[in-house]
Amino acid sequence: MIIDKVLGNLHDLPENDLAAYTGLHREKVVLPSAQLVKRIQRATTDHGNEIGIRLASGSGDLRDGDILHVADTNMIVVSVLPTDVLVIAPRTIHEMGVTAHSLGNRHLQAQFFDADSEYGAAVMVCAYDHTVEDYLTHAGVPYTRQERVLPVPFRHAEHSH
Q1: How many CA atoms lie within 13 A of 43 on its CB side?
Q2: Which of 32, 34, 77, 110 could serve as 126's disulfide partner, Cβ 3.0–4.6 Å?
Q3: Is the pTM of this model over 0.85?
């Protein structure tokens, strides 16, 4: 089976639309976050069924909860594996600036969340790296190491020096 579009996302559906999928069995395509940025890929569901994903250019990244296929009694949904991340919570704007600058020099991929997010504080989230953890420990910057399903995958930012 070739999937060429995402039909919707379970996390975005209004409650009354979600009810239409209630009786369906959910077959999962379990993907690590890094695979979400690939438009063309082969995947195997948790039932051992192979599928091809061939999304149109510009269609956006896959996300946790994306509905790939719906049949009579079954649906195929993307399930994203948690990513090992460092959740960095600087105490001051100065500490944030110094930390972001130091980590930015490493061309580290990061995401930023405000206090209204699921983190409950303004934080910077980056993929786990032992050298970053060592820097944070030595600099005294508060952080925690967590396993998280991120709303969007880390993506390399193009640049030149």
Answers
A1: 26
A2: 110
A3: no
